[in-house]
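Deliverable D5.2: sample structural annotation.
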Amino acid sequence: MEHCGEWAFGVPSVSVVGDGYCFPYPMELIVKKKIKKLSSAQFEVFDLSGNLLLQVDGGVWNLKMKRILRDPAGFPILTMRGKALTFWHKWKAYEGENAEKNNILFSVQQSHPLQIKKELNVFLANFKKKIPDFHVTGSYSSLSFKVFKGHRLLAEAKHNFTMESFCKGKEKYRVKVYPEVDYAFIVALLVILDENDTL
């Protein structure tokens, strides 16, 4: 697996989906989005060597969204379910395909219902805390975002948008995940943020 930059030791691990997705060095990921039809898009996640790391399928049906994060062999790792309300968009992520209350890994909601910037609050488990465990912030103009835990930067992504790729139904993100950060968790947040943008 290709990586760049320096190795980090002694950095607290940020593991949400699983320890197997945390590495002691920064990772560069390419996330490709292919729109199959108006209500469905598929994501594929590669390292810089072109190895498939993760894939995401699922789509939007009415106001209920469902996305499944899978490993390269197609095994389900995470199920994301979203609900589009009048002002708030909320998502819950469950381990594997078991979408039961006691199986929630994390929950996501907009930081403000009428936000101007991209802002998401992320809570481990359900919506019971006032202070989020993670915060996602970005800009609609640059189509980029960053993920924080407190003041610690965990990852940053840039949407390589071109009108040609958009018209072809193919888009791409470049994502930098910092050492000891769960890259499957970061990819899940990217998919949720992208999904919110298309609603």
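Annotation notes: The chain has one domain: 27-198. The chain has two helices and twelve strands.
The annotation will be released with the project's public dataset once the embargo ends.
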